[in-house]
Design a protein that fits this description.
The chain is an alpha+beta fold. The chain is built from 6 helices and 16 strands. One of its GO terms (molecular function) is DNA ligase (ATP) activity.
Amino acid sequence: MSSEATVRVEGRVLKLTNLDKVLYPGFGFTKGEVIDYYTRISGVLLPHLKDRPVTLKRYPNGVDGKWFFEKNAPEHRPEWVRTMRLESPGSSKGNETVNYVMVDELATLVWLANLAALELHVPQWTVGPRGGKRDPDLLVFDLDPGAPATVVECCRVAELVRTVLDDDGVDAWAKTSGNKGMQVYAYAPAKDTSEYAKEVAQRLAKEHPKLVVATMAKAARTGKVFIDWSQNNPAKTTVAPYSLRARERPTVSTPVTWDEVEDCEVVEDLVFTADEVLERVDSAGDLFGS
C-alpha cells in the first residue's frame, strides 16, 4: 500500500497520509486499516453520531504513544466539515464555548480517521439545526469492573439493570465498551435521566452489595462492578457504538444481544476486533437500539 493517496469520498476530495503507519503495534494494524474499518462500518455508525457533538481521542503515534482529547475542531480542516459551536460550562481549559465536529457524512469520518482519531465519544443528547441543545434522548449505565472483576461480572450486573428497567416498562440494550466493561442503554424516560440512573444504581448496590457499587471511590470497587450513573451528566460523553478503542488490539465498542450477555462466561466471549465487528454487522445488521 502506498503511504499516501488522494481519494474522492462522495464528492469530497481528501488527501490521506501515512497509510502504512502501524497504529496498533501489537497487532500490526495500520492507519490504512483504521480508515478502511471506519469506511466500511459507516453505514451503522453514522446514524449514532448524527447531531451529536463528537469528542475525539487522537493517537497520532499509535496506541503506545502520547494521545490527547480534542473537542475543538482542528483549525486546518476542510471547509466542508460541519461544526457546531456550543457552550461549554466547566471546561477544563476555561473555554466558554467549544466548536465541535459534527460527523454527519462519510467524508468527515474518513478525514477524522486520517487524523488518527481512533476513538469517538458522544453525549446522550443531540443538537438542533441552529445549535440548541435538546433534552437527553438516551439513558446510559456505564459498567466499570474493579479487578479482579471483568466484563463477565459486568454482564451479571447488566442483567440486573435490564430487569429493573423492564419492571419500569423501559426497553434496554447493551454494548461492550471495547475496553474492560460495557454499557446498558435505553431511550430516555420522561423523568430526569441522571437522577433516575442514580436511583437504579443505588438500589442495585444496596440489593447486591457483593457485586455492585454505586460510588466513585476506587477503593470500594475491588472485585465489584461500578455502575457509573454520572455518564448521564450533559457535560459527559461515552464512547460511541462501533468506535475503535485504543487497546493492544483494535477492539470495538460492540453492540451485543441479551443472549450473548447471558451466555458470557469468559472475557473473550465479549471481545470483538474490527474485522469481527464488520462480519457481525454483515450477518446481523445494527444491534444497537434494538
